[in-house]
Amino acid sequence: MRFTVQTARVDEETAKRALLAEEASPRDIADTLAEMKARKVSDKVPGPMVLGCDQVLDFEGQLLSKPQSPEDALAQLKAMRGKRHMLLSAAVIYQNGEPIWRHVGQVRLRMRMSSDAYLRDYVARNWDSIRHAVGAYKLEEEGVRLFATIDGDYFNVLGMPLLELLNFLAVKGVIDQ
Question: Where are the active-site residues found (predicted)?
Answer without folding.
Answer: 54
